[in-house]
């Protein structure tokens, strides 16, 4: 088959690659119809995260059609349209037994290679995945949109893990792909005000198109005043942070009310600086949210019923053979791209 292989850091090559084979009776061979480039692939591209050790076929946000199923597979058959969890979890450990598949002790992420494992991913014509991580696609949902189920699931997971009340005022820091998905799912879920915060004016415009009540620049010297005006002088009840660096996390902490919570989804910087006194003396809850555990059907249903729309977030849909050029554009932050989907 053809695959996009990272032979060395910052170099993707469209190559002939061995066809993946079913290794267990519960395995499924999927022909990839669309695969999205994740921010974590872009950050892994230069080796800075240590999570994409070459050689590796990256890609974990994908959808496709089943071409072969193992003998023990009963829930799926050849020809079914599916997506799959980015995490291959064991189903047996303490965390899996608690329904926290994202925290599995034996967790392996597709398209990731680190010191513990190497699992080639979906930047390829075919991939093999176990049946328990597959999810059927709703009828009519195009593959390139279905490839965004994983980020939509990440957004849904963060929201499910946040103690939200119906009329809470919520601020979302970072209007990139995940931030905008958080905004859309919140808009479909709660009645309170939603405030987007992003330094980039074009991203604030995207957030506005999804119905936020205000889109503000964190660098605005009047920010505090504007936030107070929107929140009865208190600050936002809940804040989502979808960047993962010191400055946006400080912004998130500065706009939340006393006793409120900040849900941390962004994961760019391994270490950040936190204003400790503000967190302690204002009694804030900082909540980490990782990946997905069970939110795939929710994300798919929201997309199928058009409660969320990923189409405006797709900056480009391009052939897999052009993957290197698109990865470089994303890496060099050319043209403010949100999501790039590749078609094998
Ligand atoms: Zn991802
Ligand atoms: Zn497990």
Describe this structure in words.
The chain is α/β, with parallel strands linked by helices and about 350 residues long. Helix content is about 25%, strand content about 25%. The chain contains eleven helices and 19 strands. The strands form five sheets. Strands 3, 4, 5, 10, 11, 18 and 19 form a seven-stranded mixed β-sheet that branches. A six-stranded parallel β-sheet has the order 14-13-12-15-16-17, sandwiched between helices. The protein is globular, with a radius of gyration of 20 Å. The model has no long low-confidence stretch (mean pLDDT about 95). The protein binds zinc ion (ZN) (2 copies).
Task: Tell me the layout of helices and strands.
Layout: E1 2-8, E2 11-16, E3 27-36, H1 39-44, E4 61-69, E5 81-84, E6 87-88, H2 94-97, E7 108-109, E8 112-113, E9 118-119, E10 126-130, E11 134-136, H3 143-146, H4 149-160, E12 170-173, H5 177-189, E13 194-197, H6 201-209, E14 214-216, H7 223-230, E15 236-241, H8 246-255, E16 256-264, H9 276-281, E17 285-288, H10 296-304, E18 314-319, H11 323-331, E19 339-343
Parallel strand pairs: 12-13, 12-15, 13-14, 15-16, 16-17, 18-19
Antiparallel strand pairs: 1-2, 3-4, 3-10, 3-19, 4-5, 5-11, 6-7, 8-9
Helix pairs in contact: 4-5, 4-10
Bound molecules: zinc ion (ZN) (2 copies).
- Largest sheet geometry: 7 strands, mixed
Structural class: alpha/beta
Radius of gyration: 20 Å
Q: Provide the succession of SSEs.
A: EEEHEEEHEEEEEHHEHEHEHEHEHEHEHE
Bound small molecules, deduplicated: zinc ion
Low-pLDDT residue spans: none
Distance between the termini: 10 Å
Please report the number of helical segments.
11
Overall average pLDDT: 97
What is the strand content? 25-35%
- The level of helicity is 25-40%
Number of strands: 19
């Amino acid at each position: 088959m053809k695959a996009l292989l990272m032979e060395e850091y910052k170099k993707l090559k469209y190559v002939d690659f061995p066809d993946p084979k079913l290794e267990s009776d519960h395995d499924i061979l999927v022909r990839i119809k669309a695969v999205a480039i994740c921010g974590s692939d872009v950050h892994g591209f230069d080796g800075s995260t240590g999570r994409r050790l070459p050689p590796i076929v990256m890609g974990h946000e994908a959808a496709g059609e089943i071409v072969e199923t193992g003998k023990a597979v009963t829930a799926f058959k050849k020809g079914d349209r599916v997506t799959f969890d980015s995490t291959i979890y064991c189903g047996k450990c303490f965390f899996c037994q608690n329904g926290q598949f994202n925290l599995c002790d034996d967790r392996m992420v597709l398209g990731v290679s680190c010191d513990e494992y190497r699992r080639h991913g979906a930047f390829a014509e075919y991939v093999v995945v176990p049946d328990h991580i597959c999810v059927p696609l709703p009828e009519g949902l195009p593959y390139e949109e279905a490839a965004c189920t994983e980020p939509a699931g990440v957004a849904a997971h963060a929201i499910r893990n946040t103690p939200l009340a119906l009329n809470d005022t919520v601020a979302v820091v970072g209007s990139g792909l995940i931030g905008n998905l958080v905004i859309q799912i919140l808009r479909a879920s709660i009645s309170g005000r939603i405030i987007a915060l992003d330094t980039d004016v074009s991203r604030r415009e995207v957030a506005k198109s999804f119905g936020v009540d205000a889109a503000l620049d964190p660098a605005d010297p009047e920010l505090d005043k504007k936030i107070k005006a929107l929140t009865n002088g208190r600050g936002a009840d809940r804040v989502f942070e979808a960047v993962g660096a010191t400055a946006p996390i400080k912004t998130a902490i500065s706009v939340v009310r006393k006793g409120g919570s900040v849900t941390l989804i962004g994961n760019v910087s391994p270490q950040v600086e936190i204003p400790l006194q503000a967190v302690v003396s204002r009694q804030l809850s900082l909540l980490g949210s990782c990946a997905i555990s069970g939110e795939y059907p929710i994300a798919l249903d929201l997309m199928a019923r058009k409660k969320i729309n990923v189409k405006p977030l797709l900056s480009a849909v391009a052939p897999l053979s052009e993957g290197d050029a698109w990865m470089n554009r994303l890496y060099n932050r050319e043209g403010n791209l949100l999501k790039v989907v590749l078609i094998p």
